[in-house]
Write a structure and sequence with these properties.
- By secondary structure, this protein is an alpha/beta fold.
- The protein is built from eight helices and 13 strands.
- The strands form two sheets. A seven-stranded mixed β-sheet has the order 6-5-4-3-2-1-13.
- The longest helix is centred in the C-terminal third of the chain and has 13 residues, at 310-322.
Length: 340
Amino acid sequence: MTQQRDPVPAPAALAPAPAATTRPEELAPGRHRRRSYRDRLTAPLPGVRAVTRLAREAGALRPGTEARRDVPLLPCAPAPLPPAGPGVLALTWAGHASWILRIGGLTVLTDPVWSHRILGTPPRVTPVGVPWASLPPVDAVVISHNHYDHLDAPTLRRLPRTTPVLVPAGLGRWFRRRRFTRVHELDWWQGREIGGVTFDFVPAHHWSRRGLLDTCRTLWGGWVLTDPQGRKVHFAGDTGYGHWFTEIGRRHPGIDLTLMPIGAYAPRWWLRDVHCDPEEAVAACADLGARRMAPMHWATFLLSAEPVLEPLTRVRAAWARTGRPREDLWDLPVGGSRTL
């Protein structure tokens, strides 16, 4: 069963708070034909000066030799998936932003990337946490945006073309061209129900591009999944820190768990607007009103300059400073699982 939910919101302005009063055009479900989503950016994209500085600082987006020395210590513990009946909510981290989420009797993949290497990045430094052959049948896939480390064509080709895919506005055509037949293309604050689980698309502080000429032509965001018992999981996708987390928490109160990115944040002058650092991830969890947080978007692809273990040590320290229960920080190894 699928159904339309909330109306489309006003776009985010290039400002620190949601002040827009106009509404974007209402679009037919599943067919979003806007040519640009630049009006949803919450910070301007880097200009010529910033790009020139990045080029001048050779190696600024890769950890140096010293920063890489702890790669063998990255937490990785592949194990069989835990049992999960219809009333169980279980998650397993496959690495990066890829999760196997069993919720409401469904198996859902988030931003599935099972490839060893993706365009423009070094190869994985940890193996995929769950072999593809070990996955149960996939009931749905959610995509946060179209960057190659989140939208991986070789992985998606492994799926039956009848698999329901829930994607940001503007990205449906990419899937339909690959013969997926159950494509749900959503704008912010829109949702669908599949098999009793509600999938709501929510904002994120990020951007999109897949080629040279398609900057911000498709939307980006996160997802709130709600099972028939009312339990809620927020998948943040890829995001910087900002005002949208408070608004998501207001519209979706009682989030039980947020899957929050903590890596790929250095240098800050370049990545601050699009990637949370560990302290910001913990702050975003509080803004959401989420009870628990599971870190992601680290320990898989080395996309930036911070030492490889630093995201974990910093997120643990930031969580401890809040005084929140240690057991509510689900800092899983790659391949690790937890059950709610």
